[in-house]
Design a protein that fits this description.
By secondary structure, this protein is of the alpha/beta class. The protein folds into 2 domains: 6-214, 2-enoyl-CoA Hydratase, Chain A, domain 1; 218-264, Lyase 2-enoyl-coa Hydratase, Chain  A, domain 2 (Orthogonal Bundle). The chain is built from 10 helices and 9 strands. The strands form 2 sheets. The chain has a 6-stranded mixed sheet, sandwiched between helices. It has a 3-stranded mixed sheet with strand order 5-7-8. Helix 1 packs parallel to helix 2 and helix 8 (218-232) runs antiparallel to helix 9 (236-250). The longest helix has 24 residues, at 85-108. The protein is globular and about 65 Å long.
Length: 281
Amino acid sequence: MGYECFDVEVTDRVAHIRMIRPEKSNSMIPSFWRDLPEIVDGLSASGSVRAVVLSAEGKHFCSGMDLEVFAGDDSIGPSAASGHRSRRNERFRSTALKLQETFTCLERARMPVLCAIQGACIGGGVDMVSAADMRYATESAFFSIQEINIGMTADVGTLQRMPKLVAEGIVRELAYTGRRWSAAEAHGAGFVNAIYADHDAMVSGVMEVAAEIASKSPMAVWGTKQTMHYTRDHPVADGLEFVANWNAAMFDTDDMREAFAARIEQRAPDFPDLWPLSDGL
């Protein structure tokens, strides 16, 4: 299936999702918001994909939300002064919740999502990469919580997720000022895992990390992701109980036996895929 904003390729259980509108700096048009969750949820449901790399063509990773998203939306803009205020407000709220769900799919996925970022990553781009498992960048990359510069509060995930990744004071400064945050600063703060000299080297390096993840037990990786997300949002005691319950229900002793056997026999382990999910019963 073809997508307006994305190209998807799966090789050796690693999915590579590329944003393919470099001439528009990979801005987020309406089809972007519809298609990304469809792609990610589909890859997760397949059970056969064990890691996802999200990258972009062109000079910039993502210039954020395209104004086309709000074209014809009378809940904002000059026409917003007319009509029923409560209805306009509810329409705006519903739109925000739909946009938020687009990036929540990255957290919901049963496999890790790794972002490879070059050039600008601003506005909605920061919302998106904050929902990923890991972030990698080129030396030229920069981030900006751009919403403050157009008179609004960021509302698609940055303010909720980014403070769980770096110090809150840093996020507050970026969110209040809208300034550019360099790749070097982001790396120093722990937001970015590693920096590469250029785009090709970055994508190659990130694909290597994804391939290593794909070689592990997909059940153990999924459990690790679920546990870390739960622990992020709950007290330590609750997180400890969660992982005890997870392993009691989901720990696969066959995977452990295979891991030990592969080590003894000096070969790569061969783990079964996750069970595929289906909309049907």
